[in-house]
Specification:
Blueprint lengths: L2 H34 L2 H20 L8 H18 L6 H16 L3
Helix pairs in contact: 1-4, 2-3, 2-4, 3-4
């Protein structure tokens, strides 16, 4: 077996491990928030996070911002949108929802 084949196998194993880790983290986040919020509230929050992250990713107005600045904007937008629905998510909850949305958007289809 040549070195390129070994490198490919190692990279494939790493990619698989990362995929499993992301799936686990996504489920654990959902379980954590499901204890505190109803299914409808959680659905609204997750959809809002996906909308906010997608907007920041796709809009040319935000493409030159660094990741930290985009996250700061996402946190503010999420807080405002959830307040409109009367949902009281903590900054930590919002941070987790944004992280989950980023993972979902980055997943290969």
């Amino acid at each position: 077996m040549d070195i390129e084949a070994v490198v490919r196998l190692v990279m494939l194993a790493i990619a698989g491990g990362i995929g499993l880790l992301l799936a686990y983290l996504s489920r654990s986040l959902t379980a954590y928030l499901a204890v505190r919020f109803s299914a409808q509230q959680l659905f609204i929050a997750k959809e809002t996070a996906l909308m906010v992250v997608s907007t920041l990713k796709q809009s040319p107005a935000y493409e030159y911002l660094d990741t930290d600045k985009k996250k700061e904007i996402a946190m503010v937008w999420m807080s405002q949108r959830l307040a409109v629905y009367g949902l009281d998510f903590t900054p930590e909850d919002i941070d987790r929802l944004i992280e989950e949305a980023v993972l979902i958007i980055k997943e290969p289809q």
